[in-house]
């Protein structure tokens, strides 16, 4: 059979579907309820690559710790939705820009100050690089001598590998303004664009699972940017994840989630921005 011929996904029984959905949700937070065909397709693809055609056997394989850990990572790469773009939800980035301008105006005199941002669920890096450009511009405008650090985490190793290369097609960088493209990208011989090494080096791409953040060492962030991830999680989990993120903000720091992504979340330390076309919260202690 040619490698291009269509192969129908292996049939997943309702019983198997319930077991797989529960395992994936327990370990990643991603919920496939009402998305059986998507789950079946992703599982089938990965199983065919691994030369396996039995869902039960594969379930036991990926469930085994530590023997199944590598295969588990490959499966998660296959099933997670990694769609992203530079400056996705432009208003959220404008909000971060205004917030940093104000924050830097009040802290620019301090020698010990660092500006720390975190892109949570960074996929292939576009969000983190967009934040790096916004923060670099704000620091330059403020004339402050500050250290900038961008943390970027995702569960998907393959997405992080692409992010670390910092190489994007001309089509990918279209949403970026001409001035920022000129300043922060270098055109390669293949007509792709490389992120300026000095900017890419400010970003630390590393693997991190959102549902384990309550166990992660405490970080102190000025901005946590968390868009288009919670939509794949069940509502009851939103509060736990967001509450855990508050503990990683500096006093006065900002948490940005995708517009309309979360409803009814409140936290005693967080105040929501008055502009309801974005969803941003500032820590007020
Ligand atoms: C649709 S992309 C969004 C990317 C980016 N935040 C944006 O808005 O353009 C969702 C990302 O969340 C990641 N993700 C899903 N579950 C995760 C988890 N439990 N921990 C960390 N990342 C996760 C996926 O691997 C994927 O890269």
Task: Give the CATH level 1 class of the largest domain.
Answer: Alpha Beta
The ordered string of helix (H) and strand (E) elements is HHHHHEHEHEHEEHEEHEEE
Count of distinct strands:
10
Morphology: globular
What is the number of helical segments per DSSP (H or I, 4+ residues)?
10
Fourth-level CATH superfamily of the largest domain: Vaccinia Virus protein VP39
Structural domain tally: 2
CATH domain topology of the largest domain = Rossmann fold
* Spatial sequence of strands, sheet with the most strands: 6-2-1-7-8-10-9
Outline the biggest β-sheet: 7 strands, mixed
CATH A-level architecture of the largest domain: 3-Layer(aba) Sandwich
List ligands, each type once: S-adenosylmethionine
SSE-based structural type: alpha/beta
**Poorly predicted segments:** none
Structure notes:
The chain is built from ten helices and ten strands. It is α/β, with parallel strands linked by helices and 285 residues long. The protein folds into two domains: 66 residues, no CATH class; 194 residues, Rossmann fold (3-Layer(aba) Sandwich). Strands 6-2-1-7-8-10-9 form a seven-stranded mixed sheet. Strands 3-5-4 form a three-stranded antiparallel sheet. Helix 5 packs parallel to helix 6. The N and C termini lie far apart (64 Å). Bound molecules: S-adenosylmethionine.
Features:
285 residues, 10 helices, single chain, binds S-adenosylmethionine, 18% strand, 2 domains, alpha/beta, Rossmann fold, 7-stranded mixed sheet, 10 strands
